Amino acid sequence: MGQFSLVSDQADFETLxxxxxxxxxRYADRIAFRMKRIGExxxxxxxxxxxxxxxxxxxxxxxxxxxxxxKMIGLISExxxxxPIIYFAILRTGATxxxxxxxxxxxxxxxxxxxxxxxVLFCSAAQYDKVSEVDHLLKDLKxxxxxxxxxxxxxxxxxxxxxxxxxxxxxxxxPAKVKKNDIAxxxxxxxTTGSSKGxxxxxWNIASNVAGLRRMIYFDENDVFLSVLPLHHTFECTAGMLxxxxxxxxxTTAESxxxxxxxxxxxxxxxxxxxxxxxxxxxxxxxxFRGINEKPIPVRLLVHGLLGMVKGVKKILRHNxxxxxxxxxxxxxxxxxxxxxISGGAPLQAWVGQTFEHLGISFLNGYGLTETSPVLxxxxxxxxxxxxxxxxxxxxxxxxxxxxxxxxGELKARGPFVMQGYYKNKKATQAIIRDGxxxxxxxxxxxxxxxxxxxxxCKNLIVTDGGKNVYPEEIELALNSSTFIKESLVIGxxxxxxxxxxxxxAYVVPDYExxxxxxxxxxxxxEIEDLVRREVNRINExxxxxxxxxxxxxxxxxxxxxxxxxxxxxxxxxxxxxxQP
Length: 581
Description:
This protein has 581 residues and is α/β, with parallel strands linked by helices. It is built from 19 helices and 27 strands.
């Protein structure tokens, strides 16, 4: 493995309950969470207030008889400070949290409640409107607790304020004696494959991941994190909530996914670290350069000239001048306080991370799975190369299974981050965990420093009739780097019934906004299609013949995606793709 310096940081917790106790007592007067709700003021929660509210909710659940090992309590809500309060309250009772995606439909919510055996459900008012439409939902629940004020009279329904008020009146506080291998969270993940499975993560699974990441990235109680991604997703829950809470940091909940509002939240609360997915960062880069290109020509020339200088110095001398050169630009863009951006959840186009690096912000690309709590690798500030997903997180062992001559094979992981298994699904568990190793389903190799390079998904691999391997993600990254292409999907198509080989086919969504800005609003659909096809042909020429796209389909609508903005490939694979989409 490569040589790099780990941050000296010894965690003092084995369970998430220990993490909560340590932080809420040690940092009681510091701000834990803040969010702008109504008007221009932020609603702030100190660690002391966070602790008091969490204990009140936990006491209510204990009095309700909803606590204890094996009990499943659901949580479905948009991001807000009450989310971590409920999360830790559930854990304090010894029960298991079942976080749900706020974008789920009624049938999917019902499936999780039934499969997990959820008997108490917390939901926001927006989610209540949805779940209350499910005919048999309330009959299956012992209690439905709504985070907001609602006008409903039903003994099975309570508001969070009512729960907190009742909990405060209960004198006895009996936090559960939780063991490190007890299940903390049951997370249903369908991802891009469409198969819904409940991932069982123990307290130690998640706590060890938190501890390992703390030894990879330096931060302290003076840092401010921005919470953008949905908290039900393990990446955001672990890296965007649990890690900052473990060190007494402040967390600003973003108002929305709009780049303008995100930048406002960063500027107004002095955010220093943020987690995001590549698409979010791409939009932020586009917004920055849109602002630059609106400036007078001398300013534009100066900025692009300085950017070229910074790139050149870094390439030749391995030294980044961006932090000093672009200090004023970062401040004007509202990013003056940011020092680290972390990307995960989907493949990153290296130029996105490099752009932020040149502007003076450390950009760390990482990789992981829900089944590994989730982070397996991450770049480190002292040695960034975002063409890779970085080094293995301290505490995990990674290996390549059956590598080919170029070193590419299926990535497998072994260590404390690996899940306990899929809930009530022994067959699926045995298929992914074999001989103590979790097989990720991703094709990868190590570079000469021991960093991991992800080549693609095993299931997505295209094998040509000549036996050549084509990684669709590589072609997608090239297509998506085009100014005129918003997103793409590359899959393999059987050549014929008698030929088992596949040929490369692409779906492409034009970036209509950029095209119209460059060519005028009067450009016709035919001209747009011609422009995009010329771009595809240009990119095609950069690949060897067996990797080239044989047919390209133009889509007007964006691809359906998961909540972390991954394209749902399973909706397209196996289709008759000769038909124009």
